[in-house]
Design a protein that fits this description.
With 584 residues, this protein is of the alpha/beta class. The chain folds into 4 domains: 35-68 and 114-250, no CATH class; 266-326, no CATH class; 331-431, no CATH class; 447-583, no CATH class. Helix content is 44%, strand content 15%. A 5-stranded parallel beta sheet has the order 2-3-4-1-6, with helices on both faces. α6 packs across α7 (146-156), α10 packs antiparallel against α11 and α21 (449-457) runs antiparallel to α22.
Length: 584
């Protein structure tokens, strides 16, 4: 660990409470000018969609400490102090009158990630109950009628029915307005977490009904609402959640407004690196964690940057890792990837090679749409990846640019829709795709390995060829060239062959063999495989012959001479997603 400077600040890993970050002296990347933008644009119901771990929860916490009137002067004074020295206080004269002025209803739905509707519903009602308890001063209100206090008490004590919970936030806002004469702000964090869990758990319709009722009652035509801020990863379609909510202002990663307030700007990353003396690692951070665009603003993944900077503080030689991959399940991505059709697999191969693909932008989707993987609905899948941080925008297209792309690659384009070229943002996200594909490949091969291995040990070339072709048709290439793909593919295919040691690209004879299988006893044959790839199917047989000739010319079997081992030699030629196998 390097010597720490006198003004060293710990990094706030996993801390989403703004007050804790300021009070305990954590390093804080100042996002308080989001307050200025909110008050300037005056959106009534603001939905911010951003990828996970990009600062949504921390920003809501910051907003609450700025705006909330705690009903206790000393506590309000303490909360105002939290903003001393931050950017919003440079505009003190204009925005200080808004500090600690409004009642706040704050709900987080991130705990409702359960496997059944009953468990998720219980978590949601727990959260609602806690928020009612936070406003329990209303039970002493001289203006609230007795029946309202009784209803309030039942919700707070979790002693009421579904309908009361579905309308609870509207009821709470009415009570607050009636008691204080001030319309409350409503902050709802991670609103789509229970919907993702419901999709995975098979209770999506029940959860949609409850969340729709909860939101509509408090957000639609609510005269007791000042304004609302909602955060999530996806914009769930109007038909399923925001039916008739005509005052909703969605701020997605496509919007230029608010673009600087989630994630880290390049200058913020450089300032952090300078503060911790990690400047030389900037290129690695850019390569691994940069590449996102919110509007036209270049953004770095804040979670991964913080995690890597912490690693560098303790070890200046630390290497970047895919930290973001471990913050949440990639189950939906995996579930959809493994069900992809051949067209989508080709698109994925292009992306993993660093190329771009064209997608139609659709901001409103449902989890059902994501898994509906007919070719005409592939854009649902790509949009899910785009809005949740697994893809990033290179450029939105229209006019002549769109026409040119259309002529070259596509047959169906709706000229009235928005299209964009997208790519994988950085090395961190590319590693996530690779890991998912590796796991998927292992699952596919497990179903074919036993027969493939038996056929290989007995020289059954036609059967080997049939098995490999079947697996090839389901696979996705993530290697940099055809040679490395086929080599890695075959190495992965045979890695579980028992009683053998497999050597790859080993010097033997007068050259380097592709794969040699060394048996642990003389009862099993030694195996030598050489691979070729060609551009045309009618060249495959010649490729197999060249591979076998290379094995003999380069004497790859030299070390097995006079050892008693039987040696099987395979020349295997690949062309696209097909192979031919010949043996000697």
């Amino acid at each position: 660990m390097k010597e720490l400077p006198p003004d060293f600040k710990p990094l706030p890993i996993g801390i989403d409470d703004f007050k804790e970050i300021i009070d305990k002296g954590y390093y804080y990347v100042d996002k308080t000018l989001m307050i200025q933008e909110l008050l300037t644009l005056k959106g009534k119901v603001n939905l911010f969609t951003r990828p996970r771990r990009f600062g949504k929860t921390l920003n809501l916490s910051m907003l609450q400490y700025f705006f909330e009137d705690c009903q206790i002067p000393s506590k309000n004074k303490e909360h105002k102090r939290l903003f001393d020295g931050l950017k919003i206080m440079d505009l003190k004269e204009e925005y200080e009158p808004c500090m600690c002025r409004f009642p706040v209803i704050h709900l987080t739905l991130k705990s409702a990630k359960q496997r059944s509707f009953q468990s998720s519903y219980a978590q949601l009602t727990d959260e609602i109950s806690r928020e009612f308890e936070r406003h329990s001063y209303l039970l002493d209100s001289p203006v609230l009628l007795k029946h309202k206090k009784e209803r309030f008490q039942k919700i707070m004590e979790k002693n009421t029915d579904y309908d009361n919970y579905a309308n609870s936030l509207k009821f709470l806002s009415d009570c607050i307005y009636e008691h204080t004469g001030k319309k409350p702000l409503v902050f709802i964090d991670e609103y789509d977490v229970p919907l993702e869990a419901a999709y995975s758990g098979g209770f999506y319709p029940e959860m949609i009904d409850f969340i729709r009722s909860l939101f509509e009652s408090v957000l639609k035509n609510n005269l007791s609402l000042e304004f609302a801020v909602i955060t999530g990863c996806l914009r769930i379609s109007k038909e399923s959640i925001f039916t008739g909510l005509n005052n909703l202002d969605t701020i997605s990663i496509r919007n230029q407004e608010y673009s600087e307030h989630f994630g880290f700007l390049e200058k913020e990353v450089k300032e952090m690196l300078s503060f911790y003396g990690c400047g030389p690692s900037y290129d690695s951070i850019k390569d691994w964690y940069d590449g996102y665009y919110f509007g036209n603003t270049n953004i770095y993944n804040p979670w991964s940057v913080i995690k890597f900077v912490k690693a560098l503080i303790y070890n200046a030689s630390a290497k970047p890792e895919p930290y973001w991959a471990n913050t949440s399940s990639n189950s939906i991505v995996t579930d959809v990837l493994v069900k992809t059709d051949p067209y989508t697999k080709k698109q994925l191969e292009r992306l993993i090679r660093g190329e771009t693909i064209l997608i139609q932008i659709m901001e409103e989707i449902t989890y059902y749409d994501i898994s509906n993987h007919k070719k005409k609905n592939n854009d649902n899948f790509w949009n899910f990846l785009f809005f949740t941080g697994y893809l990033t925008k290179v450029k939105e297209l229209s006019g002549k640019e769109l026409e040119e792309i259309h002529k070259q690659n596509f047959t169906e384009l709706d000229r009235d829709q928005i299209y964009a070229l997208v790519k994988i943002p950085n090395r961190e996200i590319r590693s996530i795709y690779k890991n998912i594909i590796r796991e998927w490949f292992e699952e596919i091969t497990m179903n074919h390995q036993e027969k493939l291995y038996t056929d290989t040990l007995h020289g059954k070339t036609k059967e080997i060829q049939t098995s490999i072709n079947h697996i090839l048709m389901q696979s996705i290439s993530f290697y940099d060239s055809q040679e490395s793909f086929y080599h890695g593919f075959m190495l992965g295919l045979y890695k579980n062959l028992e009683c053998y040691q497999i050597k790859s690209n080993r010097e033997t004879g007068t050259g380097r063999s592709d794969l040699i299988f060394y048996p642990e006893n003389t009862e099993k044959p030694a195996i030598i495989m050489e691979f070729k790839h060609v551009s045309k199917p009618n060249q495959m047989e010649n490729g197999c012959n060249r591979a076998l000739q290379q094995i003999n010319n380069e004497k790859y079997d030299y070390e097995f001479k006079d050892t008693g081992y039987q040696v099987l030699k395979y020349g295997i030629c690949f062309c696209g997603k097909s192979c031919m196998v010949k043996s000697e």
